[in-house]
Write a structure and sequence with these properties.
Residues 411-607 form the Histidine kinase domain. Helices cover 63% and strands 11% of the residues. The protein has 15 helices and ten strands. The chain is rod-shaped.
Length: 618
């Protein structure tokens, strides 16, 4: 089974190389040692052969003939056995072509061909002949050559052994150096890098990389470290970004809550939804990166929601009642950049409600690319709760004002009826008694004129008192001014015998209860004059909102006013002008060129009341 670990494989290769080097070194050393085993003995024996040759010649010349012949033969045989000693034969290669083998054969040939015959032919005890000396010298030369070659061969084998040992040592040193170099580059340096990276990660520095090449375990570990640091850096930066985002959201939420808190006090103190809400909503738009924001209120007499305020528009809203206020007006360029439906925007609709009642809807536009965070949505939901509370409280205040006003008018009407009306009735009875007196003489015309003036004045005062009592007793039993005016128009249409044209476009709750009553009374007075005195056949009533003022007009095609002024002893127009001054406006009565009279009432509403709410379906 092969290892799949490159590092282990590399270490195994290094160790295997060292072991292989040691085995080769020991094997070659053993082989060389075996090859030179016995060479020293052979050299000694070869050297002894030289001495033996001289001894043979010397003894053959000195021994006596009787005893020396047998001894000489034995010595020659013994010497010949020494020539074929196993030590010498083992030192001589078996190959015939080897120089040492040839030299050994030449030495044997010199023995067999020259020295041995010379010794055998020499008579024991006789002097040595020059031929024998020459034969010995030739033989000794061959022996010397053999000894020299044995020595050279032995020295060569020893040198080879030294060379093999040196090569093995050098190779082992190179392997060890390569091993240390590899350990340094492949193990120690990567380990230092990994330790440094681990320390840097501990200090939140994820920029350092190992960049280890290769496929071994440390390279894989370095790649894992690089991937880990990259993922840690990404996670850390994401966490930092989320923490930063949450911090920013908390700061924005804190600022938004401060804005809503400060604006809520103005909203509840001034009871002005437009002036109180628009600055707050615009600040929220800047803080949350949203907008525009629109507030729609639900009127129980209107099928569609009524837009109450907006934070950004390029044209003054129809419902605007203050042309000195430019809080919601922006340039067309700014308006075109806002995230509306046709400009990559999304809309969020949030209900403004109290338990059991739907008061309105808050429309919030925000960029589609950016989206709306959960924190921003919670802030807007908090805003709707705040607006719901303000609207609900304002409705209660409005209802209480209406009830208080109705009670005050009832009290005034009762007091006028119980005091001034009775006094005028008493005076009328006294005038009637005076008329019944039979006054004669020259003073009769004067008395009659005085009684006529008293009667006229009392009748006029009594009529004005009845109108005041009707005014104070007038109540808006209908939900709003529009319904009351429709009932009034229907009433006078029956009295006229022809339908009265009616046009009305006031936004709901544009007028306060007091303004509604005065406007209704002025229109009733104008209709009454047109029906009673003008002999008109066509009458039209228009109540229009020409921001910031309200314009109410009553037109007829009757006979018009004589001389362009009001009739004698008729105080209706005076009362209408008084009512108009109460509203801060004016009433204008003119004869029309095409015939008839036009009564025009214009005034700027001073109230800024909220729209009544309708109950949401269960």
């Amino acid at each position: 089974m092969t290892s799949r670990s490159p590092l282990v494989n590399r270490l195994a290769v290094v160790i295997g190389a060292i072991v292989l080097t040691a085995i080769v070194s020991m094997s070659t050393t053993l082989a060389v040692s075996n090859s030179i085993e016995g060479n020293a003995t052979a050299i000694n024996l070869a050297g002894a052969l030289r001495m033996g040759a001289f001894q043979l010649i010397a003894r053959s010349a000195t021994e006596d003939y009787e005893n020396g012949r047998a001894t000489a033969g034995a010595r020659i045989n013994d010497y010949e056995r020494r020539l074929e000693d196993t030590a010498i034969l083992r030192s001589v290669p078996s190959s015939d072509d080897h120089p040492l083998a040839r030299q050994y054969r030449q030495m044997l040939a010199a023995w067999q061909d020259e020295l041995k015959p010379a010794l055998e032919q020499h008579e024991v005890g006789t002097p040595i002949t020059p031929a024998m000396v020459q034969a010995v010298e030739d033989y000794i030369q061959e022996v010397d050559r053999l000894v020299t070659m044995l020595e050279q061969r032995t020295e060569a084998r020893v040198d080879l052994l030294h060379l093999i040992q040196i090569i093995s040592m050098v190779f082992s040193v190179l392997i060890v150096i390569a091993l240390f170099y590899d350990l340094k580059n492949r193990i120690l340096r990567p380990l230092r890098k990994l330790v440094a990276i681990a320390g840097a990660v501990g200090e939140k520095d994820f920029s350092r990389k190992a960049d280890l090449k290769g496929a071994d375990e440390l390279a894989q570990l370095g790649q894992a470290f690089d991937q880990m640091t990259s993922e840690l850096a990404l996670t850390y930066y994401e966490l930092e970004a989320k923490a930063r985002q949450k911090t920013e959201e908390l700061e924005v939420s804190h600022q938004a809550l401060q804005v809503m808190h400060s604006a809520s006090r103005d909203l509840f103190a001034k009871h002005d939804l437009c002036n109180g809400a628009i600055p707050m909503l615009q600040e929220l738009e800047l803080l949350l990166g949203i907008g525009p924001i629109r507030l729609f209120l639900h009127d129980k007499e209107s099928a569609e929601p009524v837009e109450a305020i907006t934070t950004a528009t390029d044209k003054r809203p129809f419902y605007c009642r203050d042309h000195h206020c430019n809080a919601c007006l922006v340039t067309p360029e700014v308006y075109d950049e806002m995230p509306l439906e046709n400009n990559d925007g999304r809309r969020l609709l949030l209900p403004i409600r109290t338990p059991g009642q739907l008061l309105g809807t808050l429309e919030v536009w925000y960029p589609a690319a950016k989206g709306l965070s959960a924190t921003s949505r919670r802030l807007l939901e908090t805003l709707t709760d705040q607006l719901a509370t303000a609207i609900f409280l304002e409705r209660q205040i409005t209802e209480e004002q209406q009830m208080t006003l109705a009670e005050e008018r009832t009290v005034i009407a009762r007091e006028l009826h119980d005091s001034l009306a009775q006094s005028l009735s008493y005076l009328k009875m006294q005038v009637t008694r005076l008329r019944r007196l039979n006054i004669t003489g020259d003073q009769k015309p004067v008395h009659d004129d005085i009684l006529d003036e008293l009667s006229t004045g009392l009748n006029s005062a009594y009529r004005q008192l009845r109108e005041l009592l009707a005014t104070f007793r007038l109540k808006l039993d209908t939900p709003d001014l529009a319904t009351a005016l429709r009932k009034t128009v229907d009433e006078f249409s029956e009295r006229l015998g022809h339908p009265v044209d009616f046009e009305y476009n006031l936004p709901p709750q544009t007028l306060s209860p007091n303004e509604e009553i005065h406007t209704l009374q002025i229109i009733r007075e104008g209709l009454a004059n047109a029906v009673k005195h003008a002999d008109a056949t066509v009458i039209s009533v228009k109540v229009l909102f020409e921001s910031p003022q309200v314009r109410a007009s009553i037109r007829d095609n009757g006979k018009g006013l004589p001389g362009g002024d009001q009739p004698v002893n008729h105080y209706g127009l005076v009362i209408m002008q008084d009512r108009a001054r109460t509203l801060g406006g004016k009433v204008k009565v003119d004869n029309r060129d095409e015939g008839g009279v036009e009564v025009t009432l214009t005034f700027v509403p001073k109230s800024r009341n909220l729209i009544p709410t309708e109950s949401s379906p269960a």
